[in-house]
Amino acid sequence: MAWADILNDGSVIRLAGMLVAFLLILLLSIGGLSVAFVKALRSGGSTRKVRQLEAQEARAFQDLQRGFRRMEERIESLETLFMGRSQHRTYDRERELD
């Protein structure tokens, strides 16, 4: 069989067309994945932003926790003062009764 017969048969042309289509799809897929990879590398800022927001939230919660501790200490001191006054009143009432 000569080349002319093979080319006229058409099977090689169909095979070559399928091979070219496959290679084109493969190249487009690799190119798309490459572009996606580069974008992912460059958009590392979004993860930085997330970390910054998480750090900011952590600081806010720490500030709230400190504020709650101070409030608890103040309430305890007020309770101590109130208990002391109520004991004085009880003592004063007992004196009045005597």
Question: What's the helix and strand layout?
Answer:
Layout: H1 3-9, H2 11-42, H3 44-97
How would you summarize what this structure contains?
The protein has 98 residues and is mainly α. It has three helices and no strands.
Q: Round the Cα radius of gyration to an integer and report it.
A: 41 Å
Q: Share of helix among residues?
A: over 70%
Distance between the termini: 136 Å
Low-confidence stretches: none
Question: Could you characterize what this model shows?
Answer:
This protein is an all-alpha fold and 98 residues long. The protein has one domain. It has 3 helices and no strands. The longest helix is centred in the C-terminal third of the chain and has 54 residues, at 44-97. The radius of gyration is 41 Å and the shape is rod-shaped.
Considering the chains and any ligands shown, give keywords for the structure.
3 helices, rod-shaped, mainly alpha, 98 residues
